[in-house]
From TrEMBL, chain A:
It comes from Chitinophaga cymbidii. Residues 51-174 form the Beta-ketoacyl synthase-like N-terminal domain. This is Beta-ketoacyl synthase-like N-terminal domain-containing protein. Pfam families: ketoacyl-synt. InterPro entries: Ketoacyl_synth_N, Thiolase-like. GO terms for molecular function: acyltransferase activity.
Automatic annotation (TrEMBL), chain B:
GO terms for molecular function: 3-oxoacyl-[acyl-carrier-protein] synthase activity. The keyword Transferase applies. This is Beta-ketoacyl synthase. It holds the Pfam family Ketoacyl-synt_C. SUPFAM superfamilies: Thiolase-like. One of its GO terms (biological process) is fatty acid biosynthetic process. Signal peptide: none annotated. Keywords: Transferase. GO terms for cellular component: cytosol. Residues 1-374 form the Ketosynthase family 3 (KS3) domain. Belongs to the thiolase-like superfamily. Beta-ketoacyl-ACP synthases family.
Amino acid sequence: MNNGNAYITSSCIIRRQTVVKNGATVFTAENAALPEFLRSLYDRYSGQYQKFHKMDLLSKLGWAATEILLQDMPMDGYRPEETGVILANKSSSLDTDERYYETVSDIASPALFVYTLPNIVIGEISIRHGFKGENAFFVSDTFDAGLISGYVTQLLNTGAINACICGWVEQYHEQYEAALFLVEKEARGMALPFDEKNMRQQKEV
Amino acid sequence: MMDVFVAADNIVSPLGATAVANYEQVRRGVSGIRLQPEGYFGAVIAEEDLNAWTAPYQLNGYTKFEQLLILSVQDALSHTGISLRDERTAFIVSTTKGNIALLEQGAAAGPLPLQLFATADRVAAYFGSANKPLVISNACISGLLAILIGQRMIRAGQYDHAVICGADVLTKFVLSGFQSFLAVSDKPCKPFDAARNGITLGEGAATVIITKDRTSLKGNTAVRLGEGASSNDANHISGPSRTGAELSAAITTALWQSGLRPEDMGFVSAHGTATLYNDEMEAKAFHLSGLQQVPVNSLKGYYGHTLGAAGLIEAIIGMRGMMENVVIPTAGFSTSGVSVPLKLSNVPEQRQMAHYLKTTSGFGGCNAAMVFSKMNV
């Protein structure tokens, strides 16, 4: 049992066509609808990654937020199973559920069906970065910083993982919000103590 | 590590409305899978059964999904003094699709009734739960992951007990999706069999109540939760790992942290969905984990795939099998159809055992494994 401190080493908040990285606004695209906004994030922050174009909006949002979160934060010091991905949101995959169900009366779309689970975004992030550690997807009406910080702290303290991508990835129709945090035992980057208060403060910047 | 125990359990399924009834049916080899009027095989709860089970309660305003959860939690609570009204009791709900049937019925006024947190809130309110429900929606590992998360939260000191329930309903939504993948069997599913050609869907609910408090346990023996772990394949969102290495990593962590060896397991309760790729991946993972000499079973031939309930239902049947020193046979299995040999059987086996291993895997590349152990109270 390691009761040592952990740190938020990076944060990425995306809402209202704006990206905030480590507390500073780094990108704004005014009046962009969500699909176009996500495409602009892909163009700006990612190299070629064909899988991106097949993803639903929830996965694109979480995937793009992770790209930005991990800029200048190499993760190759960790073995694959040392990094976990623990996420939460409000609407599960309901946006894609509705889109998928519209196809059922005609020809049900397997490409949409696979995205009718919220944890697919964990899968997409894991595939991109080779993360093979602990997974969990929680659903709650608002961001429960206490739940996420408590659970991730427990995973870090018991040695189940040594780093974690955690936070909130929500999307339903035109509403969306991502608030992702890289949490590590060793301080680097923004090196904020990892607790409920700092998580909430970063998210509300 | 703090010990956490199982204080009570329940299963609501086509095989019955209590864990005892379900276990007895499974022991007799009864399957809940039937040919449905629409022409597919599924394990569906008969309407007259559900009506009879809900009759004693005022559940008319609740959806079928909520009724299943309420029945399951109600029965489990009746076997223990642990209460959801206690602030020290966590309430954890595992589901993949919740009230998605409302989308099919066009019955939802806006998105709220379809939201997983909202339906969990309704169930929590029914029981006067002191704590907000914690909803876990992590594909097919949700049920087992919910038990693992409950154990971890108790160990972290956040709670003393946890009521962990899960449910999913067999819907056109889910059936059409697996059909679009050509992943639905044209016969009752045949896990690990050479002739397997896909899943059979099911529906149901299950509840496990866990506690750190030994005095909450009844009888001379009980189930103690062993260690568990989850992992991700980082390979494909709808296809499992080609090597099974990631499920194996979760299994190895669970065994090692429990201080146990593969041969200490009485059996492995596999996910065993009866798709070509899932069962093959699991077989490889069991070999990588040194489990080739340990009996393996899948319960999908009795229940079909119950999604968010599956990990809970199967963990409970596994616990009851362990307590009786029985390896439940794999219904639907006759000839091995995986590339590495496993100890599979379609007849029950009596075997002295003190532990067993439960595994699950799902879309998004997720895996979970957990050890369950016997203990004297």
